[in-house]
Amino acid sequence: MKPLFILNFKLYPEAAGTKALRLIDIFSKVKSQRYELILAPPTSLLGQARQRTGLPLLAQHSDPVLLGAYTGHISPQELKLLGIEGTLLNHSERRIPLAQIAKTIALCQKHRRMTVVCASTLAEIKKIARLHPDAIAYEPPALIGGSVSVTSAKPEIIADAVRLVHRISPLTTVLCGAGVHTREDVKAALSLGTRGVLIGHAVLRARKPGEKIRELMG
After folding, report:
1. Which residues carry out catalysis?
2. Which one, 4, 20, 73, 116, has least CB within 10 Å?
């Protein structure tokens, strides 16, 4: 399996509305023999995104509900109907209780949707790994949203996370969910045992996002 390269659009002004759709078109033209590129566009654009690209798509969040009277919720079952491959869960900007994570993972597994669950500590990783998601994106607090990179932080924090997950849930992929700004950071993350990266502002807020992602992917 190729390492994953997940782009989280969040709700950056540079990556919302029609700008998001233009970015999807740009990223769809990016070809890589090394990575599998996955996009997580704004929730309101998931349907349009599916119509514009053949790349795998993730929702930025989903809820543990079926189809029914659930105003404002996002159901894994609906993601399946839309052809969306899966969902991010528990991102540092959208934290949810462990019980909710567990229920959502179970529903996603039932409907064969991919789950990428974020975690910020080794203690949290241990709890989430027991739920056997498809992937855990480790977001060390020191690396979230700042200028500190994987290459300048203590690398053992990433390696420890990889060992912990593989001991509990061998089939769960570990991603580096923060601190990736350069090609060197991507290489460092992979060398520490992760199987890909979850990236936001380094690409989505770049002056030329298409060129930036090509640079990061090598």
Report:
1. 91, 139
2. 73
